[in-house]
Amino acid sequence: MNGNLALTNGRIFTEYDSWDDRALLIADGFIVDVVPADAIPEGYTQVNAQGGTICPGLIDLQIYGSGDDLFSAELSKESLHRIDQRLLKQGCTSWMPTLATNTPAVFKEAIAVFQDAQSPVALGLHLEGPFLNPAKRGAHPAELIIQADVELLTDLLAEQDVVKIMTIAPELMQADCIAYLLEKGIKLTAGHSTATFAEANRAFDQGVTMVTHLWNAMSAFHHREVGLPGAAMLHDKASASIIVDGIHVDYEAVKVSKEMMAERLFLITDAVASCQKGIYQHILNQDHYTLPDGTLSGSALSLLQAVKNCVQQVGIDLAEALRMATLYPARLIDRQDIGNLRPGSRANVLVFNEDFEVQQVVFQGELLD
Predict the structure, then answer these.
(1) pTM for the full model?
(2) What are the binding residues for substrate?
């Protein structure tokens, strides 16, 4: 459904505000305003939210694929578009295709495919590797993890602007490499790392702004050396993603993390897809994925399920859980036009019911089937 829309009969959440008995007005692909339900202008088609929650479309900054499409194993614009459509049906209207440690050739091919695909849903690429610490490699192949230098980075990244985030082990990354990546406008996040508290703080001071999947594949929080988790919690410029599926991180650890980090903690799925080829062969085990040897390799979450878990399992208020999947990730990538329902923002909207089931999705002002 195209044209001017008015979403009614739901509770509207955006940033720090929520409203009942209001209507969300959408025109020409953008948010117009939130108005009293009895003050909808002429020319708007009313869409009944049936008492559901109306919020910005969700934003996932680390996801590898969905269904049977693992982007790194398919590397085609058709695969990317299929993932787009599956995620839209889940209420995720913005995502960052992520590639785990691989060869430079695969990364270059992914960059070319992404540039050609011109996806309206995907925000850019997140490269999780190959500049990681083998001691915390998790599911990443040790033989493909390499040491960065500026010449290598220049060869990989110089002729593109689609890589937006890179996960690195900061204790192994030279200052000139960090400076080069930051000059390219790439957001850096620390992960798969043995960084000490001091090493992590030094990286945050150099411009690394995030931590990848807090608690997973990183130095331990110990009472004599709090490592990367402790540094993330205590450094006021550091944010961290977290996988709230109850498998990657215990719900009690999520509670502790939220108490310590407040608005600096945001949600990702780290979701992969079933895959039987290539170097990442992911096998679905009911609610998570493993490699053939049993190594935990990714989640089977949707981002809306992560929000539900935050509310029902962790005890986070719904409004705050939604901000963790909308406002906070948008802030981190400097996007003011998504993750909120302010006038002038893109009309990417999710409506879901009390059971956290998707009812309606509006993408770029169009009500999807």
Answers:
(1) 0.96
(2) 139, 216-217, 224, 248, 296-298
Given 270, 293, 334, 369, the catalytic residue: 270
| CATH 2.30.40.10 domain locations along the chain | 5-56+339-367
Pairing between β-strand 288-290 and β-strand 283-285 as defined by DSSP bridges: antiparallel
pLDDT of 163 reads: 98
pLDDT in tens, 258-283: 999 999 999 999 998 776 667 767 77
Specify binding-site residues.
128, 139, 192, 213, 216-217, 224, 248, 296-298
Residues 25 and 130: their CA atoms lie apart, in Å, by 45
Decide if 235 contacts 199 (C-beta within 8 A): no
Q: What is the CATH number of domain 5-56+339-367?
A: 2.30.40.10
58-332: CATH, from 3.20.20.140, 3.30.1330.10, 2.40.30.70, 3.20.20.150:
3.20.20.140
Q: CA 62, CA 65: separation in Å to the nearest integer? A: 10
Rounded CA-CA distance 347/364 in Å is 5
Q: What is the pLDDT of residue 73?
A: 83
Annotated binding residues for Zn(2+): 128, 192, 213
176 is catalytic: no
CA separation for the pair 41, 249 (Å, rounded): 47
In the predicted model, is pLDDT for residue 1 greater than 60?
no
Residue 50 in this model has a pLDDT that exceeds 90: yes
